[in-house]
Design brief:
Blueprint: E1 3-5, H1 16-21, E2 31-37, H2 40-48, E3 53-61, H3 69-80, E4 90-97, H4 104-113, E5 122-123, E6 126-127, E7 133-137, H5 140-159, E8 168-171, E9 175-177, H6 185-188, E10 228-232, H7 238-246, E11 256-260, E12 280-285, E13 288-294, H8 300-311, H9 314-322, E14 340-343, E15 350-353, E16 357-358, E17 366-367, E18 375-380, E19 387-392, E20 398-403, E21 413-416, E22 422-425
């Protein structure tokens, strides 16, 4: 299946690591502002990429409790259980900048565009008052700029069909520096979690040089209206690159997939809610979102299981994900003898050739040899037996078991559930 592509927004910029390593000495005059954008790891990374920003420090602000990570997490649980009404700190970053090189308005434009300020006490998958959007100021002039930029960005959000901004704009009352292991976290841990993505809505009049500027959504005419997967990516997202290498570069699934660098759905199609992190893989049917898979950390099996619960029948799901077994003689392909290939019904990857199939009398399709690299083998001690389980190497779904009572030349019998096989006949020559 061909993979189409457009050009996309950046969820978390990667340019600040080198900048931090060669940062010059502090100028005589600096300014700072404290911002809450959800998880401070991604917030720190994004704000540090602004030219003119001198340092970004993770911290906790404007709560009524101790200023430590453990205290913040524990107190949020107490609030959710109804055992405390004390205000929790927000996870924040203190942005220290050179006002001769960058003004506060530019810093706040990056703030508004880099997260979703309409979500209340959450940011994406991170839920709690400690993840609230916030601007904490140190004087009246900062407060005025914060309110001005909020109102301007609200106009843009409203025009894009998004909700009201919930960002708290208030004087900074308390601030605690976060623990050292939180500082420069994504510089120290480049594979760490960074879910910040923003709404994709540009600040009015903002520079077109920003990564998301002018990037069109995919053309719906190039897509499959009946069923289509779209991978929403960002240009500097290491998780997007990993998903491409692990999954997209080997895509053979029967469902069409496309990649987009725009956070917007194709014209006439609808997302159930705004995107907040990349990669996000969205399944559309008839142009409407029916499900999404957000984030990727290398667990291909988890991705295929998500997709399998939308593409496979309940009977197939039971075999594929619960190690079920069809009753002998009831599965598909028992009598299939045409030249062709048996493939994974989910990933589309080839598993067995028909010339390796034979009649074993067991009631299940049987093969004496898989295609190279098609399967993986696993010890199975379930049901009081010692067996060797066969799984698809591409999707990880359960296929069946292998036994040592097969015919030459291998002496193996790969006993496979027919309902988790798809047969693709050879093209006529």
């Amino acid at each position: 299946m061909a993979i189409s592509s457009s050009v996309l927004i950046s969820a978390c910029g990667d340019g600040e690591a080198a900048a931090k390593a060669s940062r010059p000495a502090m100028p005589a005059v600096t300014d700072s502002i404290v911002l809450g954008m959800g998880c401070f790891w991604g917030a720190e990374k994004r704000m540090a990429a602004i030219p003119g920003v001198l340092d970004v420090e993770s911290g906790y602000a404007n709560g009524d409790i101790a200023g430590t990570y453990d205290a913040v997490l524990a107190h949020e649980r107490m609030r959710q259980w109804g055992k405390s009404s004390l205000r929790n700190h927000a996870e924040v970053v203190k942005v220290i900048f050179d006002p001769a090189k960058v003004d506060l308005e530019t810093v706040l434009i990056q703030f508004w565009e880099s997260h979703n300020p309409t979500q209340g006490d959450r940011q994406g998958n991170d839920v709690g008052s400690n993840y609230r959007s916030a601007v904490y100021t140190h004087d009246a002039s900062q407060q005025a700029v914060a309110l001005k930029t909020r109102d301007a960005y609200q106009t843009a959000l409203t025009a894009a069909g998004l909700g009201r901004i919930t960002t708290e704009i208030a004087p900074l009352e308390k601030y605690f520096t976060a623990e050292e292991y939180h500082q420069d976290y994504l510089v120290k841990n480049p594979d760490g979690y960074c879910g910040l993505g923003g709404t994709g809505v540009k600040y009015p009049g903002a520079s077109a040089a920003a990564p998301s500027a002018g990037i069109p959504p995919l053309d719906h005419a190039t897509l499959d209206l009946q069923r289509q997967l779209i991978v929403f990516e960002s240009a500097d997202c290491i998780y997007c690159q990993k998903f491409k290498a692990d999954v997209l570069d080997h895509w053979q699934s029967p469902v069409a997939i496309a990649r987009s660098l725009s956070p917007q759905a194709p014209a006439g199609w609808t997302l159930a809610k705004a995107l907040f992190a990349t990669p996000t893989i969205v399944l559309f049917e008839q142009g409407r979102e029916v499900s999404r898979y957000t984030g990727y950390n290398g667990d291909t099996g988890r991705f295929w299981q998500w997709l399998g619960f939308h593409l496979l029948t309940p009977a197939q799901q039971k075999i594929a994900f619960e190690q079920g077994t069809e009753y002998p003689g009831t599965g598909s392909h028992l009598d299939e003898k045409r030249p062709g290939t048996f493939v994974d019904p989910l990933s589309g990857a080839p598993l067995f050739r028909s010339d390796a199939k034979y009649e074993s009398g067991s009631g299940w399709p049987s093969f004496f040899n898989p295609l190279p690299g098609a399967i993986t083998l696993h010890e199975d001690d379930s049901h009081g037996m010692r067996r060797v389980e066969v799984r698809s190497a591409s999707s990880g779904i359960h296929l069946g078991h292998v036994f040592d009572d097969g015919p030459p030349p291998t002496g193996k019998r790969y006993c496979i559930n027919g309902n988790v096989l798809k047969f693709v006949p050879d093209k006529a020559s």
